[in-house]
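Example complex used in Figure S2.
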Amino acid sequence: MAIMNKLEHISDTVRETYGSYLEGKSIQEIAKLRGLKETTIYSHFEILILNKLVELDDIINSVKKEKILSVLRGSDFTNLKEIKDQLDESIGYGEIRCVLAFVRPQNQLYRTKKATSEPIVLEPENKMVFEKLKEWRRSIAFRKNIPPYCIFHDSTLISIANKRPQNKEELKEIKGMSVKSIESYGEDILKIMNKYNRIDSSSSRGKREIETYNKGSYERVESLESSKAEIFTVGELTKYIKNILESDKKLTNLWVRGEISNLRQQASGHIYFSLKDKESQIKCVLFRRVGEHLNFNLEHGMKIIVRGDLEVYEPYGEYSIIIEEIQPDGLGALNLAFIQLKNKLEKEGLFSNKHKKPLPKFPEIIGIITSSTGAAIQDILNIIRRRYPLVRILIAPTTVQGKEAATSIVDSIKLMNELSCVDVIILGRGGGSLEDLWCFNEEIVARAIFKSKIPIISAVGHETDFTIADFVADYRAPTPSAAAEKVVPDAQELYEVIYNLHVRNIQAIRYVVELHKSNLKQILNRPIFKRPFDRIHSYYRELDHTFYKLQTITLKNTTSKRKELEIMESKIFALSPTSILKRGYSIIMKDNKIVKSFSDVKLQDNINVILHKGKLDAQVKKIRRD
Amino acid sequence: MPPETISFEKSLEKLKGIVEDLESGDLPLKESLEKFQNGIDIIKQCYKELETAELKIETIIKKDGKIITVPFTKK
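Predicted assembly (701 residues):
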């Protein structure tokens, strides 16, 4: 555990050096290998020694070590150069620092007495703070477009990380912190400190947190300690495992039998559970795309058989079965056949709603395909008799169990269709075992149902029995009795319907009569009916009036005519010869002709003289011409 | 054709038609009364049919290639 922690605290580059060291390489070799200066590698070892990952004796021979230690004992550690100067040329700064690192944890004096000249070494537990500070420095540098070290040296950051100043006063004591830089960055740094101090105080200086954080890599480090094997990252290892498991043919498209536990359905529709038996359990995932086609619900404790592929889920390093298919366990081959046929026919569209024929409301002839001896036929007949005895029922006695059942059913369906007078067919039988009902799961039966021109109600077994026939039929009744109830209307309901119509009929005719009555009333209210003599009276008056007018006019006319007549009469009288004769004139006539001239007569002619009173016969004696 | 050959369903449909016609109220009186009477007759007929109906049950069998029906007997 301790080693693991220490490893985590040191930076990648130091770890790499440590790796090479474990492979048995010398400092010189490592420096060459990595293209770094030897002093750099020494500084790595300084850290490794400090963390007790490397024994000082492993890198510095005991002679040199003793020499350095002797100088250090007499020194007050003011600075490295002082120490170096007291040693011979063969000993470098790197070696001195390594020894310093070795003695430092044991030498408290070294730490307290000469705080200011303390070599700038990052204490492992402060690495995270340091990294955080570096990150912050990087962002400032990037923003100001200057190199990071122009802001603060690494050593300054390390000092900050080690000392964790809480305020500006404490910040001032850090080597490399100027008043100006405190002004510019003090706030930022204190903020970072603040954050880390909080974390630390809540987890005893961060160690426990780091421990848990690194738990995953622990095993590996241990094995690395003991056998110096290849070092995986967790990701690499998981990938490796994944490859092995997922490329194994036995682990793809596998069938597993077990019991459901820890069933958990996510809002996404995916279902997670474990499949277990007495010995172990395995995680299973049922994605929605598969789960939504499941024709039964998963329940805790349910025994199932699943088909799927084993998959390793890298983020959790878990393996689980990705399920492609689930079957309830214990139903065996028949169930498998059922599922297969169902899927096949469904794909062909035999179950589609668009092929479902509507059932007649008032069938006249109902065909029943079932055994003529079973309980089902009696149930059906009883119910129809009670509900709607108006129908004619044609029973096609059919074998509904055993080997010949399927063909028998198919024949009966054909027979019913040949009759072409049947309105609807009930196809079914009473309850039984899955094997008993099996003929209703046969493909030929399904196809015959589909082909039937007459709507078919399937009524097989009990409520819970589902057969292929149920899916193809135009209507699925849960039981034969239910089919009988569905196929005909209820006479009681019909009585109500008729009564209703009866009431409406009477109401309607009453309304019609009332309507005509009120029309009649309206007509009778008209004046012609109400005062029938009014009209005659007016005719009378009119007639009278006309008559009067006629009278007056006639009268007027006669009077004037009479006057005229009188005038005429007088005129006529005036002109009459008698009136002339009266006055003394005479008229001479000869042979009934009036004599007007002397020439009209001769001598001796006899003439007649007409007087006013009487006549004279005379003879012409003399004729005078004047 | 005897009246009982008209199916119950058709009778009911006819009855519905009559009532609806009557309810519209724009038929001549004479026709209305005729329809009303007709409706009453159908109602009586329907009741009678329902009350007196007995289930006719036959079994169909194939004989000499022909489908025939025989009365169904309980076994």
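Residues 532-575 of chain A form the longest helix (44 residues). Chain A touches chain B at residues 361-362, 364, 372-373, 378, 381, 384-385, 389-397, 415-416, 418-419, 491, 494-495, 497-498, 501-502, 504-509, 511-513, 515-516 (CB under 8 Å).
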